[in-house]
């Protein structure tokens, strides 16, 4: 009976963290779409006028898709990390809140990127926000997995290593992009898309390692 109560307590603690995390993610991605504007046209406008008006908003669409994808990367990584946890403590809850601060700021920095995509500072601020999110996610996992503090005791060390590596990839890309921004804002912007093949490669290597 005592073991069941302890298991319920642990599950309740983790569920509370996941609930507020999912809420912040849902709120952030909802705010992202609010920055997409419908062109204002005259009553005699044609389909060509509408197409031209929409084409002027291409930066907003690209920024929206990028931010939505990045939010998806964070959400998926967050879900993956917590799937390995068996318990949570006060330090993990605070580390998770520090991670969520940067997720909540994503719409704000996306809006800056929309309006000033050609300026280095806009790109650096966006990258700094994402690097901050990645740093605290990686730190949360490191704290939870170190000496199997909050993860399952049977979790293999190589799995912990690969999860740590996958958590660190995104913030590393954003930190590097800050340096690339000195060669041009567009250079830094394009570099972010390099995360896609890199994460796919790491996932394949992880699966291969598990089958060895």
Number of domains: 1
What structural class do you assign from the helix and strand content? mainly alpha
Share of helical residues = over 70%
Q: What portion of residues belong to β-strands? A: under 5%
What about the largest sheet? none
Q: Residue ranges: pLDDT <50 for 5 or more in a row?
A: none
Rough outline: elongated
Q: Based on DSSP secondary structure assignment, what is the total number of beta strands?
A: 0
- Mean pLDDT over all positions: 85
Integer-rounded radius of gyration? 20 Å
How many helical elements? Answer: 9
User: What's the helix-strand series?
Assistant: HHHHHHHHH
Distance between the termini: 39 Å
Describe the structure.
The protein is mainly alpha-helical and 212 residues long. It has one domain (2-211). Helices cover 78% and strands 0% of the residues. It has 9 helices and no strands. It has helices at residues 2-33, 47-55, 58-83, 90-104, 106-115, 120-145, 157-180, 185-191, 195-211. It is elongated, with a radius of gyration of 20 Å. The protein starts with a helix and ends with a helix. The model has no long low-confidence stretch (mean pLDDT 85).
């Amino acid at each position: 009976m005592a073991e069941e109560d302890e298991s319920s307590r642990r599950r309740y603690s983790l569920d509370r963290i996941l609930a507020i995390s999912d809420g912040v993610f849902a709120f952030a991605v909802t705010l992202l779409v609010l920055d997409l504007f419908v062109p204002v046209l005259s009553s005699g406008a044609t389909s060509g006028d509408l197409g031209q008006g929409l084409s002027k908003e291409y930066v907003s669409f690209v920024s929206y898709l990028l931010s939505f994808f990045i939010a998806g990367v964070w959400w998926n990584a967050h879900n993956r990390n917590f799937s390995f946890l068996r318990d949570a403590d006060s330090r993990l809850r605070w580390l998770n809140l520090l991670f969520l601060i940067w997720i909540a700021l994503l719409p704000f920095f996306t809006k800056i990127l929309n309006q000033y995509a050609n300026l280095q500072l806009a790109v650096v601020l966006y990258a700094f926000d994402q690097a901050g999110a990645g740093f605290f996610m990686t730190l949360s996992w490191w704290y939870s997995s170190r000496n199997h503090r909050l993860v399952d005791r049977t979790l293999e060390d190589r799995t912990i290593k690969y999860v740590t590596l996958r958590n660190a990839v995104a913030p590393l890309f954003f930190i590097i992009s800050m340096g690339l921004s000195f060669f041009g804002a567009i250079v830094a912007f394009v570099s972010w898309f390099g995360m896609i093949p890199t994460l796919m490669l790491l996932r394949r290597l992880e699966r291969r390692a598990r089958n060895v």
